[in-house]
Design brief:
alpha/beta, Rossmann fold, 4-stranded parallel beta sheet, 19 helices, 8 strands, binds iron/sulfur cluster
Length: about 400
């Protein structure tokens, strides 16, 4: 059987030159290729398709091929081969108004770039568009599915129990689907792996808080790593990234731009000059991106892993009321010595965009310059570089006026 087109594209991407300072990110591309190869070529119509916010440790315990779906759209955007796909999907589904990342994912199935899964596991978080996509795929391809309902009111005392019970049920669903009993020793090991990866990940973030060792193009491939926590290779990749950063710091290979910016919302993934030249054109470093963090969860209790995973599931900072997100943003500003904040409001993304007016008002109170850029992370028809340049110039003037305050 011919190889699925997505795999061919990934193989080509592996041979492309790497931009940015962190070379070990090449391993992430290799891992994406190996995983996609296993799932799509060896397990077509059988692999598990998972939502980004399903605790990956539970899936990893089964040693069964799985593909976290939203990051696929990330790699498609970065490889820039979605041209025409969005337009074709829109004309096929007259008036379809879904997030472009979701339209691309649906289009990839429809146009046979990837095979359908055997089962779908998804959650109510992060967004309704993703829920619609998973539901559509499960129905269209007649797959068994499990839906994890993550409550909005995360601080309600019953929320932890509610999620813990569902995770236990999800474990049973996976046992039934894969035909394998959960191995308690493997489960324990996976939780240990996850805790170790999380520990190193926090060290990487601490380095980033102190030194500018990454460029814009370094951060795109790193953030979807968290969808595979629990696997041994994720811990190794984080260790490599950390070692490389330490070496760069020792060799004084540190970027020294004038302003450190916190990037909120989504990061534009389509090929564009604007993001690539932020540092050169405006003297701006991305000190931290909200998407690199998603959540800073505590160590998962190895003795009580079900509840530990439920705590992790409830820890995402954009989940719940906007106050949680504001508190996280304030913490990032202090820890990462942030001079200004940019929010990229991706068209139709209610998860992030709904909080913008609150963020803007909060940052005004704190005296932190703020800029909202609106557009689309994947659809070039809604990505107006010219207008961004004009707005950036005004933003930089504001940053300059605050310098030394
Ligand atoms: S960008 Fe927003 S709307 Fe699109 S999949 Fe992500 S959370 Fe959902």
């Amino acid at each position: 059987m011919a190889e699925w087109e997505y795999i061919e594209r990934l193989r080509l991407a592996l041979n492309m030159p790497l931009y940015g300072g962190i070379k070990s990110k090449k391993r992430i591309w290799q891992m994406n290729y190996d995983d996609a190869n296993l799932a799509f070529n060896d397990y077509p119509f059988k692999y598990l398709m998972t939502g980004m916010f399903i605790p990956s440790e539970l899936i990893a315990t089964f040693d069964y091929p799985f593909i976290p779906t939203e990051p696929l759209a990330v790699s498609v955007g970065m490889m820039n081969y979605h041209k025409g796909l969005l337009e074709r999907m829109e004309s096929r589904y007259d008036g379809m108004q879904l997030c472009s990342a979701i339209e691309i994912m649906l289009g990839m199935f429809e146009e046979g770039l990837i095979p359908p899964p055997g089962a779908v596991v998804f959650s109510s978080y992060m967004c309704e568009d993703a829920q619609k996509m998973y539901g559509t795929i499960a129905r269209r391809y007649n797959c068994p599915s499990y839906f994890l309902d993550i409550p909005f009111n995360v601080d309600n005392p019953s929320a932890l129990n509610y999620v813990t019970e569902q995770l236990f049920e999800l474990g049973q669903f996976l046992e039934e689907y894969t035909g394998c009993k959960m191995n308690p020793d493997r489960f324990r090991q996976v939780i240990k792996n996850s805790n170790e990866a999380n520990r190193v990940r926090k060290e990487v973030l601490e380095l980033r808080a102190q030194y500018q060792v990454t460029q814009v193009s370094d951060v795109f491939p790193i953030y979807p790593l968290f969808t595979k926590f629990g696997r041994e290779d994720i811990t190794e990749i984080y260790r490599e990234i950390k070692q490389e950063m330490v070496k760069r710091i020792e060799n004084r290979q540190i970027y020294r731009h004038r302003f450190r910016v916190l990037w909120l919302g989504m990061i534009p993934l389509l090929s564009n000059k604007f993001m690539k030249t932020l540092d050169k054109n405006y003297g701006i470093s991305l000190a931290l991106e909200e998407n690199s963090i998603f959540s800073l969860w505590d160590k998962i209790d190895e003795e009580n892993p079900w509840e530990g995973l439920a705590r992790k599931t409830l820890s995402y900072h954009p989940l719940g009321t906007v106050d949680r997100r504001l508190a996280a943003i304030e913490r990032f500003i202090n820890e990462y010595k942030i001079d200004g904040v940019i929010h990229f409001s991706h068209q139709g993304c209610r998860v992030y965009n709904g909080g913008v007016s609150f963020i803007s008002a909060h940052l005004k109170r704190l005296g932190i310059p703020f800029l909202e850029l609106s557009g689309d992370i994947l659809d070039s028809r809604n990505f107006n570089e010219e207008s961004y340049h004009l707005r950036m110039e005004a933003f930089v003037e504001l940053l300059k006026s605050k310098e030394g305050e």
